[in-house]
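tool_call predict_complex ligand=manganese (II) ion
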Amino acid sequence: MRILVTNDDGITSRGIQALTAAMARLGEVIVVAPDRQQSAVGHALTVASPLRAVRMEREHTSIAYAINGTPADCVKLGISTLLPYRPDIVVSGINHGSNTSVNAIYSGTVSAATEGTLMGIPSMAVSLTTFDASADMSLAAEVAYDVAARLLDLKLPAGTLLNVNVPTVDRSQYRGVKVTRQGHNAWKDGYDVRKDPQGHPYYWLKGEFLTLTELEDGDDFAVQQGWTAITPIHYELTNHAELDRLKGLFQP
Ligand code: MN
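tool_result ok
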């Protein structure tokens, strides 16, 4: 099996190193990842400036490129142009930080996997629910291995990917895997207003993650209880439940 590994925290992050080592037990690992931190860039593509691909030597990989672009750029450029063959699966992560609830929309980690799905390749994103840079990645790496090993057999429908969130718990507290839905929690946004040396204000996003609606079958609730949350998600944006109602209003 050939596994394309990418992320949004950059090619030097601890998360992608742990993921690469885990995926090497499954097959041949190819890394195409951003050359710098690209968290929360969503599904952005680079269109107004050129992309550069720097070939690198990375442990456990047959081919590795660092790209001066977004996670979605990495998957698109890698599969369409850089790689000599199509990967069998795309695995994105291990992200430093939760991609539950609304985070999945902003996430570059999830968008990289979404891009894999758009290109017709079974894909998954893996996140560890802490921003602690020194956090133990071993449980998340094991979960990534277990899910990736089954990804082809799952026969996900076209356009559907797996969003996997692993709780930050001791192994003694870890409870296993739950299949969940995307939660309904969100950030209470705010900005730190600071002054630059010339006295001009600048703004730095800060926020507080709020539990708005506790969905007992949701991803946030599962990881809070010590479970890995696996949520099948898709990029189809149509609200099917609204179709008929709006047809009645616009096409009476
Ligand atoms: Mn990230």
